[in-house]
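quick q for whoever's on today - can somebody do inverse folding on this one?? i tried earlier but teh output was garbage lol. tokens:
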């Protein structure tokens, strides 16, 4: 009798697991272009410090934001990008590079619909380096958006978000009271983000 009971429980557990696996739980892979408002602060820093010419600067980068969505609408994801690079040449050479990474939790409000709004939030950190980078601190991140053609093989996502993570840059040296002191400048490389992505 115990054997029959165990077999019955195993069958029920198997059916439940199969049902869960056939639900709407799925991976999504959005990738596209993001307008990066805050990166202008980084560019301004290098213009002021080195007299760099940034007339050809375009504040747009590629972002990849895969997430796992559960049947009830919750979603867990990671963000990579949009990355940024500054290269100063001609006398006072300097470089700056920045790869933002984020962990997020969100909710898709109409998970079974072909069009659905969503919201997500989490923490973002900029893996930044270069001659003038002193420190990088994580900060809160939040975004809202709408996904279209969710039932198709390739959908479309429109998103507006804000990244409050900070990077500290060397601000230069000054001489006062018989000694040199160094100042620092803190920037928000992300700031307002506006993104359009294809969702695979």
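ok took a stab at it. sequence:
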């Amino acid at each position: 009798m115990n054997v029959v009971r165990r077999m019955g429980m195993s069958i029920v557990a198997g059916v439940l697991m199969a049902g869960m696996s056939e639900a709407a739980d799925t991976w999504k892979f959005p990738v596209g272009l993001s307008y990066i408002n805050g990166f202008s602060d980084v560019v301004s820093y290098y213009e002021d410090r080195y007299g760099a010419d940034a007339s050809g600067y375009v504040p747009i980068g590629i972002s990849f934001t895969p997430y796992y969505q559960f049947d009830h609408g919750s979603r867990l994801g990671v963000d990579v990008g949009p990355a940024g690079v500054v290269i100063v040449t001609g006398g006072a050479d300097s470089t700056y590079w920045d790869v933002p990474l984020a962990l997020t939790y969100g909710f898709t409000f109409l998970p079974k619909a072909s069009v659905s709004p969503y919201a997500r939030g989490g923490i973002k950190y900029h893996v930044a380096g270069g001659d003038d980078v002193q420190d990088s601190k994580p900060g809160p991140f939040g975004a809202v958006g709408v996904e279209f053609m969710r039932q198709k093989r390739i959908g479309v996502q429109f998103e507006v978000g804000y990244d409050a993570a900070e990077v500290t840059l060397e601000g230069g040296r000054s001489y006062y009271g018989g000694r040199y002191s160094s100042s620092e400048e803190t920037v928000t490389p992300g700031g307002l983000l506006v993104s359009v992505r294809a969702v695979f």
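fwiw Residues 2-21 form the longest helix (20 residues). also Residues 31 and 138 are 23 Å apart (CA to CA). so keep that in mind when u check it
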